[in-house]
Amino acid sequence: MTTEHQASSVTAKKALDPVTFEVLKNGFTNLVDQMAEQILRTCYSFVIYNRDFSCAMCDAEGNTIMQGTQDISVHVGTLHLTAKAVLEDFGDDINPGDVFLVNDPYRGGTHFSDTRVVLPVFDGDKLIAFMQTNGHWADMGGSTPGSFDVNAKDHFGEGMRIPPVRIYSEGEYLKDTVNLLVSNMRVPEERVGDLKSQVEAAKVGERQLHGMIEKYGLDTILTAFDEVQDYVEKMTKAKVSSLPNGTWETTDYIDMDPEVGDGLIPIQVKMEITDDQIIYDLEGSHPYIGCFLNSGFGASSSAAYAGTKTFFPDIPLNSGFYRVVKVKLPENSVVNAPYPIAVTGFCSGAYEKIMNACFELWSHLMPERAIACSFNLEYLLIGGNDNRHEQTSYFMWYDWMAGGHGGRSDRDGVNALSPVFGVGLSVQPCEGQERLSPVVTSKHEIVIDSGGPGKFRGGCGVEKGGTLTDISDTVMSVCCDRSRSITWGLFGGLPSSPHGVWLNPGKENEEFLGAIFSNVKVGSGDSFTRPSAGGGGLGDPLEREPEKVLEDVIDQYVSVARAEKDYGVVIKEMNAELDQYEIDYEATETAREYIRNNRKDWLEEDAEKVTEMYHKGDIDKLDVIRRYGVILDYKNDELLPISTQQFRESMKKRSLSYWN
Fold it and tell me: What was the pLDDT predicted at 28?
């Protein structure tokens, strides 16, 4: 059985003249962007302030008319489902002045933190549209501050599940209903502040739409609602029709099922193009797993939409796009987890794997826009008592990392950028974090050698560290992945580096916590650091011009040692402080020939032997990964044989098969 999500096609006859159509199309986009500006200026949460939100306008059937220009990618393709859920539950009982709240990931949402305000818009007694604002609330209750509990098996440990519920009834604020919800969340006054900010933003959209109706007339606006969707559908079909029919397949992985241990979790993505239609079929993906990295159908559909849209940047986004792109998701799987299976960590789990798999498939189809795998989204959450002031208060330090994007068809990947999950997110300013929470940032810098080697290098990751100050009853959690399914290269490129968090680095009680954990107790004076991965390399690193490798060394993106190990470029250091280096071209030719003659055999080397070499210090962590394709559990440096076999097969497909 599969769940197929697609929007029904609208076949309204073209009626608007080109000028009016273009004015209204852009006016709808501006309307949504105005809602976003309202949220940005009035929200309470630092998370939302750093742009973890999105907005949309939907028609009376719930179809998306337009999303904004800076919405984060994860919300793409889900907001119309929320509007339709309100229609399903309330039907004819929707009145002027009503406002609804919903965050249900089993009804087409993403995860419980993404909380949507849905405001129906009326012209007289006629329902004509929905305004929707979606913000990531920093806590939804549950067993862990920040509501990201790795150990949760079902949603009851993840926080409040809110099906469509009325929070304003004909203009009257239902305070008791809201209090019932936020009383089950940490820092409830902040949750109410964000709620009211989102409601007011939706009202901005409502006022803007009424202004357009007053100027152009209701019939013209409703016609434009249909035509902008038809326009996007026609534009998308024209693009797809220019491509060859065919089928393309690939597999990406989540690190593990914590209940099982060793073994990557496969997500299989098959893309079929038939004339002017795109169908993604994820049949064969792993059954849902025993932690929160699963994804619901709405989020997985969104990943396919966002992955596709990346290769069609000139097309506006509305439900016309969803008519062309269809997604089939196997039931009871890691990409279509049913109620009540835990899904809050979908963003670090299934979502980005689907999106990067789409990147790979489209890179074969559109090599001029090719991109290798990008680093994995990482959330670090610290919650507890802030004792810096006379009156103790509860704090939530909620941070996400920048990292490297994959090498591209004609240039290197971008350094220190938001994850593909949330392109549009801001990197949170350390000064703001330190003012709001008892955490002082000790470092925030680009990580040398973190970009995957390739003809076009992956972008570099970032290391961010901090120290906890005056706190009590505080715990730390992390939501991440790719400590084992390490960010891969493409077309001969090499992987980057694994994710993970260190507690008290450099001290006697130093501990590697890994890439996912929850409720680790921390106290005043404890410190932490975590490097994000870079992007995977694209193309054979032995084809990178030695002069570009030299520039990378000067820029401190690549070390002298790894320039030789990864690129076969031998560089002599004359004076590092003055950036004086020199390429030894003769030694470079010898080094490249040595790598070329041995690298295929390295991927066949006995994994136990490689592990022993690492333990002896003969090779380092990046050698283990990039040369030998071996995966270790870096909590104890033990070999993971099943994961190694799977990762090596991935490297042979994406890298080795392109080497001369």
Answer: 97
Cα separation, 490 vs 641, whole angstroms? 23
Give the position of tokens 């309470």.
Answer: 44
Give the C-alpha distances (Å, rounded to integers) separating 491 from 246, 367, 431: 20, 10, 41
Does the predicted model carry a pTM greater than 0.85? Answer: yes
Residue 172, judged by CB atoms within 10 A of its CB (0-12, 13-18, 19+), counts as exposed
Interatomic CA distance for residues 81 and 123, integer angstroms: 23
Give the residue ranges of the chain where pLDDT is below 50: 1-13
Give 629's DSSP letter. Answer: -
Is-contact 302 114, C-beta < 8 A? no
Bridge partner residues of 394 (DSSP): 385
C-alpha triplet 125, 126, 129: angle, nearest 5° = 130
Q: What are the CA-CA distances from residue 488 to residues 50, 253, 498, 649 (Å)?
A: 28, 11, 11, 12
* Residues 2 and 328: beta-carbon distance below 8 Å: yes
The region, left, alpha or beta by phi > 0 then psi within -120 to 50, assigned to residue 616 is alpha
pLDDT tens for residues 509-555? 999 999 999 999 999 999 999 999 999 999 999 999 999 999 999 99
Please, are residues 376 and 480 in contact by the beta-carbon 8 Å criterion? Answer: yes
Q: Measure the CA–CA gap between 70 and 383, rounded to whole angstroms.
A: 29
How many Cα neighbours within 13 Å face the side chain of 466?
23
- Comparing C-alpha atoms, which of 504, 503, 487 is closest to residue 495? 487
Report how far residue 544's alpha carbon sits from residue 27's, in angstroms, rounded to the nearest whole number.
46
**Block residue for tokens 């709001």:** 436
- CA 643 to CA 646: how far, in whole Å? 5
Q: What is the DSSP letter of 508?
A: T
Closest Cα partner for 549 from 446, 628, 463, 456? 456
Two tokens, residue 77: 């393709």
Give Dmax over CA atoms of the chain in angstroms: 81
User: CB-side exposure of 220: number of CA atoms within 13 Å?
Assistant: 19
Task: Answer for the pair 400, 415: CB distance below 8 angstroms, yes or no.
Answer: no
In the structure encoding, which two tokens stand for residue 196, read together?
């009211």
Asked if 421 and 73 touch (Cβ cutoff 8 Å), the reply is yes
Please give the angle made by the CA atoms of 358, 136 and 334, to the nearest 5 degrees: 40
Using a 10 angstrom Cβ sphere, with 0-12 exposed, 13-18 middle and 19 or more buried, the burial of residue 228 is: buried
Angle between helices 546-554 and 560-567 (to 10 degrees): 150
User: Can you tell me the distance from the alpha carbon of 130 to that of 67, in angstroms, rounded to the nearest whole number?
Assistant: 12
Amino acid at 616: K
Cβ-contact 13, 227 below 8 angstroms: no
For 266: left if phi > 0, alpha if psi spans -120 to 50, otherwise beta; the answer is beta
What's the distance, CA 261 to chain centroid?
24
| pLDDT in the model for residue 3 | 43
DSSP state of 627: I
265-274 and 393-400 beta bridge pairing: unpaired
Q: Residues with Cβ < 8 Å from 505, sequence gap 6 or more? A: 465, 527, 528, 529
Confidence at residue 73, expressed as pLDDT on a 0 to 100 scale = 78
How many Å separate Cα 416 from the centre of its chain?
Answer: 14
